[in-house]
Design goal:
Blueprint (H helix, E strand, L loop, with lengths): L17 H22 L2 H7 L5 H27 L6 H14 L3 H10 L4 H6 L4 H14 L8 H26 L7 H27 L4 H24 L1
Length: 238
């Protein structure tokens, strides 16, 4: 009988804990629905079909800016409401916010480099979708130990991981843009993959302690997905 030898360096993958596996599976389902809906919006179809106009790109940057500013704010607000029992997780929230709290400056720089006026993007009012999305996220962030916001992070960071690179390439092709006009989307295409790995690590830590939080995390992901879609749809109406 032949015996198959296993290399000494081989380490069998550890099975995921049930709560983590179940939550990731449900979040993947939410993401699948959201991804399909995003791709079917008129604005995103113009990007994917190579029909983007320079004014479209400027509008995209302008309408994205407030959500990016608010993102670091609601994450730090959430961190401030994490109780002392979860101090290590609070630290991770703060570190995540610190890496992104100045990202809006990249949006502003891209806007100006692409032909927009800095005063216009700074003074722009957030669209309806952004207003509602931020209101929801700040509301959740104001609750004690608001770890369900991991559902929101899953959706928002997933956009960077799955779409930012595609959008940057298509926009560059359509408008013949230079590297200094696409810094924001290129940056997030590169770094949000790392953020998703961090997300799974934190999610595992939380569900190991609070396995019953899974439903709330998934619900927050669903609400965030719907409101983010509204934000994209409102770019057309602005």
């Amino acid at each position: 009988m032949n015996v198959i030898s296993i290399p000494q360096t081989f380490v069998p993958p550890a099975p995921l804990p049930w709560a983590l596996h179940s939550t990731l599976r449900r979040l993947a389902s939410v993401w699948s629905d959201f991804e399909s809906q995003v791709q079917n919006t008129a604005f995103i179809r113009r990007i994917s079909e190579g029909k983007m106009r320079r004014d479209d790109y400027l509008s995209m940057l302008l309408h994205h800016r407030q959500q990016v500013i608010d993102g670091a704010c609601w994450i730090t607000r959430a961190a401030s409401n994490v109780t002392i029992e979860f101090a290590d997780l609070r630290t991770k929230f703060i570190k995540h916010a610190a890496t992104e709290h100045l990202d809006y400056k990249m949006l502003e720089a891209d806007y100006v480099a692409a032909g927009g006026a800095l005063a216009d993007i700074i003074s722009a009012q957030p669209n309806i979708g952004t207003e509602v999305l931020s209101s929801f996220l700040f509301h959740r962030a104001n609750q004690p130990d608001p770890f369900d916001l991991l559902g929101a992070m899953f959706i928002i960071e997933g956009l960077g991981r799955s779409f930012a690179g595609q959008w940057a390439e298509k926009i560059e092709e359509s408008l013949s843009l230079q590297d200094d006009q696409l810094t924001f989307y290129r940056h997030h295409a590169e770094h949000d993959q790392d953020h998703m790995a961090e997300f799974e690590e934190v999610l595992a830590d939380i569900l190991n302690i609070l396995p019953d939080l899974s439903d709330r995390i998934v619900q927050t992901a669903k609400v965030t997905a719907r409101l983010y879609l509204l934000q994209i749809e409102e770019i057309e109406r602005a």
